[in-house]
Amino acid sequence: MTHRSTAVPSLKTALKRGLLGSLLLGSALALAPADALAGACPAGQEGVGLRMPDPSPAKDVTDKVVASIDVAKEPAAIQDRQFRLRRIEVKPGGVVPWHSHGDRPAIIYVIKGEITEYASTCAVPIVHKAGESTAERHGVSHWWKNTGKGTAVLLSADLLHVKDADPGMT
User: Fold this and answer.
1) pTM summary value
2) Could you tell me which residue ranges the Cupin type-2 domain spans (predicted)?
């Protein structure tokens, strides 16, 4: 009878583990964004209060609430908050006016086109392209402009105070 040590895996086991690891890593890389920094403020350009409020009014932008949830009635029981999903379309030259995320975190996903963000926390404009997302947190105030040639289509998910419930981007 032969005795195989359990301390050293067999060649067959090692190959299986290696193959499985390679498949998992390959899958993770395939699902990862092409460029982790795409649509982010470039290194060395970040800061606080780098851009002052812009007075440009809303222009050529439509904002439609797709769905919303009163989260006070959900297990999270967050009082006076609404979790909402909006579809925002910004025509070429269109503007989403200056607004703050001091008390309204949001995540924006660009479905189509591209749009330029002018954030208080970045010294240079940030271009967001289709397939990219950005998190908007406290400490960020900004405005957006469609500097592209086609309509930009965005999805915005935010957690807003019920008292502030407004279909607009302010």
Assistant:
1) 0.73
2) 88-156
